[in-house]
Design a protein that fits this description.
Layout (H helix, E strand, L loop, with lengths): L5 H25 L9 E6 L4 E4 L15 E4 L4 E3 L8 H10 L5 E4 L3 H9 L8 H4 L14 H5 L2 H15 L9 E3 L5 E5 L2 H24 L8 H12 L8
Length: 242
């Protein structure tokens, strides 16, 4: 039997991680969440302390698993010939501080980004929203000039964490956020769950926009119905699904 060296074994592990990141990134245009080179998804390997992410400025149709870039949780490239996404430091900050996530997705999807640009939280208007969370989707405050002129992408990670802290929300309970004047970020236990959350967020954002357009005086979902829909999926006596 041929002996596998440590470096070969590590390369094989990274290859699997790059494939996961590639498959997740491929979903973004398929789901209508990105245009051209907008957005990125990363997939983390906690044991290795690294994540694979889309290369910067490369069109989605030109992506391959081999073109994914592997970086550590400090944002330093570990493996790959291309520059990683310009948002890499934001992903690195979140992975470093949030130990229970395995994937992050960042899009500029139309409706979620519109709410971000409007600097407005997305209210809980109906059961689709309540199926995923019982709270409004928060929008961060605009970033300060000092943070913008500093290490911008690095600071974006802290901007996200600070918003959740101020709202007394845990990243394990709410897996999506709007970055003020920018666009949405979502995360999850895997990269595919992060992409799922991006799609859910865009759908919720579109429904909320249309709700307010149809009825500017629309009221929030009643508490009993909100709890019913959330608990039947996520509560201790959940009964949705198989």
């Amino acid at each position: 039997m041929k002996k596998i060296t440590k470096s070969q074994g590590r390369s094989s592990r990274y290859r699997t991680l790059r494939e996961e990141a590639f498959e997740a990134n491929k979903q973004l245009p398929q789901l209508g969440l990105v245009l051209f080179t907008f957005g990125n998804v990363s997939a983390a390997d906690r044991k290795e302390g690294v994540f694979a992410i889309k290369p910067s400025g490369v069109p989605y149709e030109e992506l391959t698993p081999a073109r994914m870039v592997v970086v550590d949780f400090e944002g330093k490239v570990v493996e790959g010939k291309l520059r990683p996404s310009s948002d890499t430091k934001t992903h690195a900050v979140l992975y470093k501080h949030w130990q229970e996530i395995g994937g992050i997705s960042h899009t500029h999807s139309t409706y979620a980004t519109a709410w971000s640009q409007a600097l407005k939280d997305i209210p809980v208007y109906g059961t689709t929203h309540a199926d995923h969370t019982t709270v409004d989707i928060p929008c961060t405050l605009p970033m300060s000039d000092a943070m913008i002129s500093g290490d911008y992408e690095f600071q974006t990670g802290f901007q996200i964490m600070e918003c959740l802290r101020e709202r007394n929300l845990r990243y394990t309970d709410l897996e999506m956020i709007l970055v003020g004047s920018h666009a949405p970020f979502t995360w999850g236990s895997t990269s595919s769950k992060a992409v799922y959350n991006s799609a859910v967020l865009e759908s919720i954002a579109r429904m909320a926009f249309l709700t307010e357009a149809i009825n500017p005086g629309a009221v929030r979902i009643k508490e009993s119905l909100l709890r019913k829909h959330f608990d039947r999926k996520h509560g201790p006596d959940a009964y949705y699904g198989q």
